[in-house]
Structure formats: C-alpha cells, structure tokens
Design brief:
By secondary structure, the protein is α/β, with parallel strands linked by helices. It is 33% helix and 24% strand. It has a seven-stranded mixed β-sheet with strand order 2-1-5-4-3-6-7, with helices on one face.
Length: 177
C-alpha cells in the first residue's frame, strides 16, 4: 500500500513538473489579500466571472481527473455546495487537465452539481497555475481570500469547509445597521 502511495505521489510530482507547475505560480492567492481576477467559460457554455459574483462567498477548487486526492474531495465539495448554494455560496471547479482531456473532465463532472471549467479556457486568470492539486480557495463577499485548503495543510472536509465558509455566509446575511 505504501509503495502505491509513493508511486502516486511520484507520478503527480512528475506530471506537475512536466506541466510547468511552479511553487510561485499561485503566489497571488495569499490569505487576507484581494482575490485575483478570474473569467472562464464553464463546461456548459456559461461564463463564470469572479468579479460578477461579488457579494457572495465563493469557493474556487483547482483539480484534475488524474489526481486521486482531488477526486476524493469532490463529493464533499459537491454536498457542501448543494447545501449552501441557496444561502449565497457560489463555486467553480477549475480542471488543470489538458484541453484534449475535456471529455474526461465533462464525464467526471456529470456526477456533481457545481459548475466546472477548464483552466486553459480562462479568458482572465490572475490566479495563475496552482502550485499543488487539489487546492481550494475560499473568497468572502468583499472579494478577499479567507482560506486556502490543500491536503498537506488543511484538507477539504465537511468540518474544514464549515469552519472556513459558514462564518462568511453568516456575516453576509447579518442585518446591516
């Protein structure tokens, strides 16, 4: 079992290195900083514009079909999205797969309710290329990055998502004045 895990880790590191993933590529996603701009055509043809959903809490999830940890957290993200979408939560899954793997991405996303897009389809992507996969970024209603979840730091779980997102949704729905 350990040798299989090491093989997957080596494979993922090799693919990331081959694909040009840089540790500095997502430096723009620092907690407490404004979220970078993102405009991308979703798999269904709709346009996701991070600036247009200002006022809502947004989860941006970077993933790939060939990434076992990505695939493992997707059902958790989907359940969370379905539960809180009606309360002002938006989400986009950004696949780091290559353009020729679009059909594989579409097939995987048929099981999930949140929108997805190919990272290569972004018209504007100031996030850059993620330094690791999976990577989930939580953005508050004012457009500020409030959390970044990665398996080596804080994995995506119901508990970690609740801790990062629910206070932001409550703040958003609190009466003003």
């Amino acid at each position: 079992m350990l040798s299989r895990l090491l093989w997957y880790a080596a494979l993922e590191a090799g693919v990331l290195a081959f694909a040009g993933f840089s540790p500095l590529a997502c430096a723009a996603t620092a907690i407490g900083q404004p979220a970078p701009s993102l405009v991308v055509q979703e798999l269904d043809g709709q346009t996701f514009d991070l600036g247009a959903v200002r006022g809502k809490v947004v989860i941006v999830s970077f993933w790939a079909t060939w990434c076992p940890p990505c695939r493992a957290e997707m059902p958790v993200l989907d359940a969370f999205y379905r539960r809180y979408h009606g309360q002002g939560l938006e989400m986009i899954g950004l696949s780091a797969d290559r353009p020729h793997d679009r059909s594989d991405v579409s097939k995987v996303m048929q099981s999930f309710s949140y929108p997805a897009a190919m990272l290569d389809d972004a018209k504007v992507n100031d996030f850059g290329t993620p330094s690791a996969l999976p990577m989930t970024v939580v953005i508050d209603g004012q457009g500020m990055i409030r959390a970044q979840l990665t398996p080596d730091q804080t994995a995506v779980t119901e508990k970690s998502l609740s801790a990062a997102v629910l206070p932001l949704l409550q703040r958003k729905s609190a009466p003003h004045g």
